[in-house]
Amino acid sequence: MQMPAFTYIWMFFVYGSAVWLEPIHDALRTVHWFVRGTVWTVAIFGIEYATGWLLSILLGACPWDYSLTASYHINGLIRLDYIPVWFTVGLLFEKTHDFLNRITIY
Q: The domain containing residue 40 runs over which residues?
């Protein structure tokens, strides 16, 4: 069974931009989970939209174009039906981040 796939070198930088979310995570530690999930959703949408827009300008097209596949999108760069997904993923990333910080390597 084959499962062919492809990606773009630009995605390294898109996903790497998550490092800038570290100060937000530290600042939100004591905030209610609903507010934190909302902040993560807005932050992820912001990064997705900004990087998609920038790649469209630089390359002439965005690697992801939701305008053909999703009913609820903004300029084909973000999908509004992903709100629950990014909300949940943001909160899960917090737990994953905290778990990884507790690991000690000798």
A: 21-101
- Give the pLDDT confidence score for residue 56 in this predicted structure: 93
CA distance 36 to 56: 30
When divided into structural domains, the chain yields a total of 1
Q: Are 14 and 63 in contact (CB under 8 A)?
A: no
Contact 43, 24 (CB under 8 A): yes
Q: Is the pLDDT of residue 104 over 80?
A: no
For residue 106, pLDDT beyond 80: no
Kindly state the average pLDDT of the residues 19-44. 93
Buried/exposed 11-34: b ≥16 CB within 10 Å, e otherwise = eeebeeeeeebeeebeebeeeeee
Are 50 and 60 contacting, i.e. CB atoms less than 8 angstroms apart?
Answer: no
Whether 97 is covered by a domain: the verdict is: yes
Helices (H) and strands (E) in the chain, counts: 4, 2
